[in-house]
Amino acid sequence: MELVGEEKRIQALFSEARLADEQTAPSFAGVWNRAQAKTTRPQRAFNLSFVAATALLVCALVSLAWWVKHSQPRSEAVIATVPQINKGGSLSVPQPGVEPVSEPGFKPAPQSHRVGRSRSLKLVAQRETLLVAANQKAARDAKAIASWQSPTATLLESPSDALLKSMPQLNQSGDELKSFLPTKPK
Questions:
Q1: Does an H or E element contain 175, and which?
Q2: Within a 13 Å sphere around the CA of 138, how many CA atoms are in the beta-carbon half?
Q3: How far apart are CA 93 and CA 85, in angstroms?
Q4: Residue 163 pLDDT
Q5: If you average pLDDT over every residue of the chain, what do you get?
Q6: Is 78 within 8 Å of 124 (Cβ atoms)?
Q7: Per-residue pLDDT tens for 72-94?
Q8: Within 13 Å, how many C-alpha atoms sit on residue 97's CB side?
Q9: b/e per residue 133-152 (b: at least 16 CB within 10 A)
Q10: How many helices (H) and strands (E) does the chain have?
């Protein structure tokens, strides 16, 4: 079989392309040696992006914990200084500027503690005021709900409701009782 001119030219182009590929392609031995060298080298213990992501996550958690701790109002001082209830049921609230009668050997608290107590008493009073206001509002809302009537209830009433809801009395005459019976068309 003889090659025609066009086929020879195509065969020459393919051989040139193969020769160019062979020159640019790496040798098998070189690729194999590089692969063996990579497996014997120790891997990096930490990937830099993994370390950065972990550090960012830890910083976010620490800042969230700090924000939660410092954003809530401190209620320990208020709980510790709630006025005591006497046996008689009355509330014992110390008056500002009036020193309580103390036992011998009792040392009064420094001025900074007194200021803290007065602040806590103010907070307790504010909370009690808010609770009373909330209870009053709840009572008003409950009364409003209990006295609510449908705006369309009057539309359901008719002038003959009294007649339809009443029962005939036994002392009525027969003619009066016939008014309750349906009329028969003749």
A1: helix 174-178
A2: 6
A3: 9
A4: 73
A5: 76
A6: yes
A7: 765 554 444 444 444 444 444 45
A8: 0
A9: eeeeeeeeeeeeeeeeeeee
A10: 7, 0
pLDDT at 129: 92
Q: Which of 129, 120, 128 is nearest to 76 (CA)?
A: 120
Count Cα neighbours of 89 within 13 Å in the Cβ-side half-sphere: 0
Amino acid, res. 158: S
Return the amino acid letter for 64: L
What CA–CA distance (Å, rounded) separates 64 from 57? 11
Token representation of residue 56? 């960012």
> Within 13 Å and on the Cβ side, how many CA atoms surround 66?
6
Radius of gyration of the chain (CA): 49
3-state secondary structure of 91: strand
Output 130-139 pairs: Cβ under 8 A, ≥24 positions apart. Answer: none
Q: What are phi and psi of 85, to 5 degrees?
A: -95, 125
Distance CA 117, CA 98 (A): 13
Per-residue pLDDT tens digits for 13-30: 999 999 999 888 888 888
> Does residue 111 register a pLDDT over 60?
no
Q: In a 3-state reduction of DSSP, which class is residue 40?
A: helix
Classify the C-alpha dihedral 24-27-30-31 as positive or negative.
positive
